[in-house]
Amino acid sequence: TNLEINEDKEVAFIKPLIRDPFIYFQNTESSVVIETTSNSDSYQQNLVLAVDFVNLWNISVDLEVNEMLVDVYNNENGTDLKLLPTSAYTISPNPAVIKNGNKTTTVSVDFSKDNIDYDDFLLPVFIKETSRFVSDIEQNVHYVTVSRPAPRLDRRGWTIIDVSSEEPSGEGVGNGTASCVLDGTVATYWHSQWAGGTGQLPHHFTIDMQKTVTVASVDLQRRQDQRDAYRGKIYISEDNETFTQIGDFEMAEVNEPQTFRVTTSPGRYLKIEITESRRAPYANLAEVYARGVE
After folding, report:
1. Could you report the per-residue pLDDT of 38-49, keeping only the tens digit for each?
2. Half-sphere CA count of 197, side-chain side, radius 13 A
3. What are the CA-CA distances from residue 132 to residues 58, 69, 95, 99 (Å)?
4. Mean pLDDT score of the chain, rounded to an integer?
5. Half-sphere exposure of 255 (CA within 13 A, CB side)
6. What local confidence, expressed as pLDDT, does residue 74 receive?
7. 56: β partners
8. Which of 138, 145, 173, 256 is 20 to 30 A from 22 via CA?
9. In the chain, where does DSSP find H-type helix?
10. Could you report the per-residue pLDDT of 151-161, keeping only the tens digit for each?
11. What is the phi/psi pair of residue 262, to 5°?
12. What is the pLDDT of residue 86?
């Protein structure tokens, strides 16, 4: 057999792929929930800095919290998170060092429960500067979302003192009235009037919480497997005469309670108004809770 060499292919070229050495966060997002019922006053989240090469140096990494990145995150994710106050956290060590022979190092973010309000926050931790090489622009920020839900207020003694429309007969005995939103069971519910007349949108009812409390959010739970209630507004008052709108809501089509943040406000009287229905003009709700502090 005769072998021939193709002169056009007798030379092989080896072209090395040279990659820039990057420093980056192993993960770019995490979340912390500050539990109101927990006895712990502090919470911690670990962030891991890493390199993807054989490390022969002590690499110092300076971190900072970049306030401008809050808007970037909110725009990309459709959220409305606030920047976590500086008094609510510490980052340690900073600068961090990825030591010679290691590919990672851990940075701890410690959160102070007492300095975190009942709200949702964002902490964007950014790689500001490195002693060697550069940060990976795709992974140079770690976003920590921090949430502290307010506890549910004790509803014992709460009463309905005003309702625009309810159905005291058509939904069965003990059902259909506004007081059902305070009875602690989703088996009963408030329903706008439909027997002997039809209540028209907007519907509302007012709850007397019996004393002034500070409301931070409101939980609404729909009548099970019913999608009628859609959009509405939340008001609060000290005297049951002058009401201030503190929030609005758009209910998802789920059976679980839905929490709606409001402008944290003091008041005794809480008014729920339903302005839009998926089956106009009817509306219904199973339970209403307020979250905050007494």
Report:
1. 677 779 999 999
2. 9
3. 9, 24, 13, 12
4. 94
5. 6
6. 97
7. none
8. 145
9. 68-77
10. 999 999 999 99
11. -130, 170
12. 97
pLDDT band of residue 230 (cuts 50, 70, 90) is very high
Contacts of residue 103, defined as CB under 8 A and 6 or more positions apart, other chains included, come to 50, 51, 52, 53, 55
Q: Which amino acid is at 256?
A: E
Residue with token string 């007969």: 169
Which residue intervals of the chain bear CATH 2.60.120.260? 159-293
| One-character DSSP codes across 204-232 | EEEEEEEEEEEEEEEEEEPSTT---EEEE
DSSP code for 71 = H
CATH 2.60.40.1740 describes domain 22-147: yes
The reported pLDDT for the residue numbered 40 is 73
The per-residue pLDDT for 15 is: 75
What pLDDT sits at residue 38? 66
Q: Residue written as tokens 């939980």? A: 219
Residue 78 has pLDDT above 80, yes or no: yes
Residue 1: the pLDDT is 56
Cβ proximity of 56 and 100 under 8 Å: yes
Q: Which of 74, 75, 284 is CA-nearest to residue 180?
A: 284
CA-to-CA distance for 136 and 150, rounded, in angstroms?
38
Total residue count of the chain as it appears in this document = 294
Residue with tokens 């920020």: 141
Answer yes or no: are the C-beta atoms of 219 and 288 closer than 8 Å. Answer: yes
Residue 179: phi and psi, rounded to 5, are -65, -20
Q: For the chain, give every residue range classified as CATH 2.60.40.1740.
A: 22-147
The CATH number of 159-293 is: 2.60.120.260
With beta carbons less than 8 A apart as the criterion, state whether 100 and 59 touch: no
Whether pLDDT at 174 is above 70:
yes
